[in-house]
Specification:
The complex is a heterodimer. By secondary structure, chain A is mostly helical. Chain A is 44% helix and 0% strand. Chain A has two domains: 67 residues, no CATH class; 43 residues, no CATH class. The longest helix of chain A has 24 residues. Chain B is of the alpha+beta class. The model of chain B has no long low-confidence stretch (mean pLDDT 92). The chains are: A mainly alpha, B alpha+beta.
Chain lengths: 156, 243
């Protein structure tokens, strides 16, 4: 083969090239996280990491496993579809360990968050001017939060 | 042990494959949750929203959102005859403590809860230079905070303003659609805390989800449809003045 004399240097060069590719692949394999590309152009393990974060709101199904009496009481009133933690706040800690007692709610302030009268609120939503209506008296003095009456007026 | 050259050539790749699977480890067990069976979104029913701020507070409590930053927030619109195209919009502290009482009954008021739209064609994931933000196979736009550089390209790319750079972690942060809850069969913290049912988590791949009937019978829109983001936050009775 007269066209291919003195091919030794080509093989040496090819050897260096192959070695460089192998080193590149090794470094890449070491640097790129193992689950990268599992589902797409991102680290697949991130999904399980995000899903493992702690839960703070236990969910009303969890509440109702113990407090079925309250759930029963709610079915009769207008607050039937208001979840427990909408008013009581996040209580997964109490659900995990019932000895942790949640703080008592201040109904004079809490109820107004939803029911304080404002022209901006939807017209059909029950609203009241708390200052002239109750003058600082806690709402639960007259109203039962778990089952406000459906009848006109709302008071028990 | 005598191994011929031919056997060696077969054994080497086999060993490599075995080593790969050892490195990968056993897949994380997530009982009863199959990524490919869900396609999550959110239904926001404007006429039901009373602007109480429960969702904003619940989100901050559930996800340790730093003060002054919001994964979800509420805007109050006030549209009058003279400002149909330029309504007055307020959102004091994201609506976290509710809204000032409106005495004047002129014009129209309504509340618009906002959050990440979990777009199917999200602009934010397309600009990430390192693959740190992505759409999960079940349709949730998430941030891999171990991989994020904090370059904030995604913060600029989001047309809905749903992202921010976390002030302590210095990486992008956003609504995860409570991914740690919905994968366990719970609803999101904002939906759990909403007293009027103005927010509802929806699973578009679940044929029994009430969203399918709702979409057929209601005037439902997404925000900024002209941007073709494939937004999955569905707004019922959204006013035309909302931007």
């Amino acid at each position: 083969m007269p066209n291919f004399r003195d091919t030794g240097h080509l093989f040496r060069f090819a050897g260096i090239f192959v070695a460089a590719v192998l080193i590149f692949l090794a470094i890449r394999g070491w640097l790129v996280p193992h689950t990268f590309g599992q589902y797409g152009h991102y680290r697949g393990a991130a999904l399980t990491e995000i899903a493992a974060k702690p839960v703070h709101f236990a969910g009303h199904q969890t509440c109702e496993t113990c407090h079925s009496d309250i759930a029963e009481k709610k079915t009769a009133g207008k607050h039937v579809s208001v979840n427990c933690e909408a008013c009581h706040g996040p209580l997964a800690s109490h659900a995990d360990d019932p000895s942790i007692q949640p703080a008592k709610l201040n109904t004079a302030q809490l109820c107004g968050q939803c029911h304080e009268a404002s022209a901006a609120k939807p017209k059909g939503f029950p609203q009241v001017e708390t200052e002239s209506h109750a003058n600082g008296v806690a709402c639960e003095t007259c109203h039962q939060a778990h089952s406000p009456a459906i009848a006109a007026g709302g008071a028990q | 042990m005598n191994i011929t050259r031919r056997q060696m050539l077969i054994l080497l790749p086999a060993a490599a494959v075995a080593w790969e699977s050892i490195l990968a480890g056993t897949p994380e067990s997530s009982p009863n949750y199959n990524l490919s069976e869900h396609w999550w979104g959110m239904l926001i029913d404007i006429p039901k929203c009373i602007g109480c701020g429960n969702c904003v507070r619940a989100c901050q409590a559930e996800n340790d959102v730093p003060d002054g930053y919001f994964r979800t927030w509420i805007e109050r619109y006030h549209v009058t005859d003279s400002n149909l195209a330029n309504p007055e919009v307020i959102s004091p502290d994201g609506g976290k403590h509710g809204f000032p009482v409106a005495k004047e009954d002129k014009g129209k008021y309504f509340f618009v809860p906002k959050m990440c739209n979990h777009c199917a064609e999200s602009p934010c994931t397309q600009v990430c230079p390192v693959g740190a933000t992505f759409i999960s196979p079940d349709g949730v736009v998430l941030v891999d905070q171990k991989y994020c550089l904090g370059c904030a390209y995604c913060v600029q790319a989001c047309p809905y303003g749903s992202r921010y750079i976390h002030p302590q972690k210095r990486v992008a942060d956003k609504c995860t659609l409570c991914y740690h809850r919905i994968t366990k069969g719970l609803t999101t913290a904002c939906c759990e805390a909403c007293p009027t049912g103005a927010r509802q988590l929806v699973d578009l791949k679940n044929p029994n989800d009430p969203i399918h009937a709702f979409l057929k019978t209601h005037a439902v829109q997404v925000l900024k449809p002209q941007m073709a983001t494939g937004a999955k936050a569905f707004y019922n009775e959204l006013d035309g003045s909302v931007r």
